[in-house]
Amino acid sequence: MIPLSLLDLAPVCQGSTITTALNNSREMAVAAEQLGYSRIWLAEHHGMLGVASSATALAISHIAAATKHIRIGAGGIMLPNHSPLIIAEQFGTLEALYPGRIDLGLGRAPGTDMATARALRRNLQGSVDQYPQDIEELQQLLGPQQPEQTIIAVPGNNSNIPIWLLGSSLYSAQLAASKGLPYSFASHFAPDQLFDALNLYRQGFKPSAQQASPYVSAGMMAVVADTDEQANYLFSSLQQQFVNLRRGNNQTFQPPTDNMQSRWTEIEEMMVKQTLRYALVGSQNTVKQKLEKFIDATQVDEVIVSMPIYDLEDRLHSLALLADLKV
What we know:
Elements (H helix, E strand, L loop, with lengths): L3 E5 L9 H18 L3 E4 L13 H9 L6 E8 L5 H14 L4 E6 L6 H7 L10 H12 L20 E5 L2 H10 L3 E3 L8 H11 L11 E9 L3 H20 L18 H10 L4 E3 L1 H15 L3 E5 L5 H12 L4
Parallel strand pairs: 1-2, 1-9, 2-3, 3-4, 4-5, 5-6, 6-7, 7-8, 7-9
Helix pairs in contact: 1-2, 1-11, 3-5, 6-7, 8-9
């Protein structure tokens, strides 16, 4: 069976609270562990009313404390927002608290709008171009101390936390390959370059101390329900979210609707459906066929799913139905 993992953004639902969102993520993690999921990652976003995982390391600790063996990590930390030393100390602390369970996925997008990105105040100049060097610095801080090393991360030093590179472009695929790191492609919201990125990564992979051979996961949205009709109804929450994002409407996560036609234009409908074309939406039988087709086409080593479902009970039910497929 291919490993299944979970990507969570701690969605803040309309009429609910951030506390509830973070506690819901903890319940999802507990359930995912019991159901045999390989890992659960939280993603760094800032300034979004519908996302509660901006302080990602704190959110990771919250759910790691409620679980026992499932891997917990970031999918991802946006490296240009932070100094490598801060990340090394934060994740070194997590590794000390939850040994052998922490993953560190890295991205180079800000995870927010540019005004909020400037307010994060890492420095006065853009640091995206320093991304490869920042990765190397972070690897050194998390690795064994060298004789000439003057900056030491405490905690973090010699923790050897696995680093993943995340992305939705050919750049990230080539960088992960050149550094010999596992790679996770964001096909759940940016699918256009999926196959080109996978080919580049596999063909250009250079073995490293961390990773001897290519290892790639791909993201997929997943809404599994007892019937196709129910799943499509629940999926409308995510469709509304994407419409709101494209319109620049910053809103909490909306309840599902049975009338999307009144909520998007024809062009918006086409764009959203194109973006979410790999989403696993339907009954178990429908989703099983979609997932098997995706795995056959991509030959990915792991699938990481995001479950954008408004009600926690529906989310937990979807989690269980997907785990039961045993693809």
